[in-house]
Request: fold
Amino acid sequence: MQSKEHWERVYATKPADGVSWFQEHAEQSLRLIQGTGVPLTASVIDVGGGASTLVDDLLLSGYSSLAVLDLSAAALAAAQKRLGARSAAIRWIEADVTRAALPAQAYDIWHDRAVFHFLTSADDRHAYVETVLRAVKPGGHVIVATFAEDGPTQCSGLPVMRYAATDLHAEFGAPFTLLRHEKEEHRTPTGAVQKFIYCYCRKSAS
Reply:
């Protein structure tokens, strides 16, 4: 995993809406989460959510059990400031997802847009998947988005992995059933287009 210092520096030197991955509304993520059919009381964690506005829209949609995990305290602080008093309804977790001690079988939905592709080490990817296996409930939903095969080779000055849907699913393996995948052409604040792949999997119920 890249250093915490790198991400603290990014959020200390750039506004939250100035980073390349910024979305005014994370429409595709929200649609996929709503499409799982879980009740509004379901437990949802946004991994690498940092300053993302997804949590705002989840709150507005009525979801009541939300957590946001990010390596950067500055990113989490930006989201908390934006949400104001509403931030008290969220569980904020400052941690490296590959080492995070998340509660066992706690989450109905695991969402990650643009963390997994930064894991260029096989050991870090294995640790990430082990965290998902521990933290997601049996039968729970896992939504992970990374750069697609024809996406960027770097982001924020760091190397990244690129995936086809089958390759991304293969990283998670047999305990996860791939239910659907779809692409996104994300336009950055500077107007560049980045191609993403979203995979929606279901964790085995046993």
User: Anything to note?
Assistant: The chain has a mean pLDDT of 93. The longest helix spans residues 122-135.
